[in-house]
Input
Amino acid sequence: MDPSVMVGLILLGIVAGILGSLFGVGGGIIYIPVLTIMFGLSATEAAAISLIGIIATSAGASAYYAEKGVASVRIGLYLELGTAVGAIAGAFLAAYIQDWILMVIFSLFLFVNAGRMILSKGRDCETKDPESAEFTYTDLKTGEIHGYDLEHKTAGTALCVIAGAYSSMTGVGGGVIKVPVMNNLMGVPLKAATATSSYMIGITAFSGAVVYLITGSVLLDYAAFVAIGSFVGMIVGTRISRIFDTASMKKYFSIVLIASSISMLLKAGGIL
Output
């Protein structure tokens, strides 16, 4: 492999790892556009490599957020039952769907999620007294402990099945669906939702990556350098997460989603 490609893959992993660990999306929204547009990989190859990078990001981010009391392992495991099933099904379906269709699906979901973040105008879920709440999380910026209850569990689990399939088919990790579902539907505050998603996406990505490995779709040399960069980026991202408030997180999250969505639509249309 050319040294410039190696360096490029590591830098890609670092940037994606930072954004992925901050917003609970695993970095797939960065991997897919860059791997397909700049590195010339097919959508399926990019999705397979992206899942490997997501696993590397999730491995460290989930441990950090769980230790700090931000992520909810209980919620993560509950929702992941449906997500893992969807991830396995999605990885098999990806082999029968044309690349441009995957790109369009990817872009539409990003636009919808970005719109919901923008319309919320920085509002977040109401919190309760920690002693009377079903779940709690620690705000890393203020150090305060907040309580919240989980709502619409059945609907949330069903949507996570879709998130799992979407994850494997596009290589995104499903966080772009899971974070809004937890925050907008299930009443999980954004910071807790992104941290919990960081925990969940590793399991989801692993489920899909196994299928890609079996079918021979993973370019191992590319995946190795992406994984190295992702882990470094995760370390940086989790450490700076404490400086963001909810309004800032929603604003920057929506910008990242829109930029990635536009780039993928241009790629699907043959413009890039």
The longest helix spans residues 43-67. The chain has a mean pLDDT of 83. The chain has ten helices and two strands.
